[in-house]
Amino acid sequence: MFNHTYFFSSSRGKCFKEHIRCKEIFVKPGAKLEELANFAYQRLHAVQQPKIVYIMAGIPDICTKTKAPAYEESFYDLDDNDKLLTMKNILSQTRTKLESINCKVVFVTITTMSFHDWNLHRLKCHKTSKLLYLTQYVDMQNQLNSVLHQLNKFITASNEDNDVVTPFLHTYVHKIMGERHYYSYSKLVDGVHPSAALAEKWRKYLKRIMKINERLLME
User: Which Pfam families does the entry mention (predicted)?
Assistant: First the structure.
């Protein structure tokens, strides 16, 4: 049991519920960072004991989801040139907000998604009748992955500055061979959520990280 650990996540965090024993695992599909920070603040502002708060999100902030009758699609806005700076500011504000109530904040690195696989999955599930951005998915994917590469560096630096160990969950999907980056999208069953095998690896790894960070908290 991780007695000082709280975990707040968008939908990917569901794979940890009932598998990791900590004070609380809160999961809300589609939740953005600011929303999770507000939930954490509301739940923990009165908790006096030492507390570590893990935040696992980012894709709902970076990507755009549009919905209309018989239409739904997730995409990357290629005209938004400020996405990286915006995300860095949101992460910094999240940390500041939670540190104001004496939380030790740990950001989980952000794993990519596949626009092609996710939107095709939604099409097959009859959640949408069309995909308007299909021809742009390759460019969108490249831009998303580029932003995530920089954001994960920022997350790592933030965690190091905060004297906590980073959960590098993205490294199970993001791979580097020499100077080449490649991505194991097949480990994401629908383009977003982890396969059973990946979820099990994430759980084992995250437990090790939580154990270390709990020890560091009490030193």
Answer: Lipase_GDSL
Nearest to 53 by CA among 95, 13, 7: 7
Which backbone phi and psi does 51 adopt, to 5 degrees? -145, 140
Q: How far, CA to CA in Å, does 17 sit from each of 8, 22, 42, 103, 124?
A: 11, 10, 20, 21, 28
**Domain spanning 2-218: which superfamily?**
SGNH hydrolase (3.40.50.1110)
SS3 1: coil
* Domain ranges across the chain: 2-218
Would you write out the chain's pLDDT as a tens digit for each of its 219 residues? Answer: 999 999 999 999 999 999 999 999 999 999 999 999 999 999 999 999 999 999 999 999 999 999 999 999 999 999 999 999 999 999 999 999 999 999 999 999 999 999 999 999 999 999 999 999 999 999 999 999 999 999 999 999 999 999 999 999 999 999 998 889 999 999 999 999 999 999 999 999 999 999 999 999 998
**The overall pTM is greater than 0.90:** yes
